[in-house]
Write a structure and sequence with these properties.
Helix content is 52%, strand content 15%. With 134 residues, it is of the alpha+beta class. The chain has one domain. Strand 1 and strand 2 form a beta hairpin. Helix 1 runs parallel beside helix 2 and helix 1 runs antiparallel to helix 3.
Length: 134
């Protein structure tokens, strides 16, 4: 998961740079399961360092973003959205679709992506901790 978040932040930062420069980012979009493969072989410390670096790059870019209302007819980025939907059996499943987002909405989506994965990590940590206490 750490590799996925890093790679998504790196690509998201690239796309956001294009949007802030008034250009539409080139395709393909950042896909929902983006990974580099490093999660299979890289040491944990390297993965964490790359995540911190990717997050800092995104923060620096956002600090440089203009304030104020969105520019009319600003370029958008083709974005893969993944949301959970209710299934007939009572469970949930992914709903995957494309949307076109201007830079502010795209930046917000990147933040929500991080928060979603943070929640997943917290739940995983809690379940591992609970299992180790049994």
């Amino acid at each position: 998961m750490v590799d996925h978040i890093s790679q998504t932040q790196i690509r998201g930062c690239e796309e956001l740079r294009h949007l802030l420069a008034g250009r539409r980012p080139p395709l393909p979009p950042v896909y929902e399961a983006l990974r580099s493969g490093a999660g299979q072989w890289a040491p944990w410390e390297l993965l964490v360092e790359e995540l911190h670096t990717a997050n800092e790059a995104m923060l620096e870019l956002l600090r440089s973003a203009p304030e104020g209302p969105a520019v009319p007819n600003a370029p958008t980025v083709k974005t893969v959205m993944v949301t959970l939907r209710a299934l007939p059996d009572g469970g949930t499943g992914p709903q995957i679709y494309f949307v076109e987002l201007p830079w502010k909405e795209y930046a917000l989506l990147q933040r929500l992506h991080l928060l979603d994965h943070r929640t997943q990590v917290k739940k995983l940590h809690a379940s591992i901790t609970a299992a180790s206490l049994q």
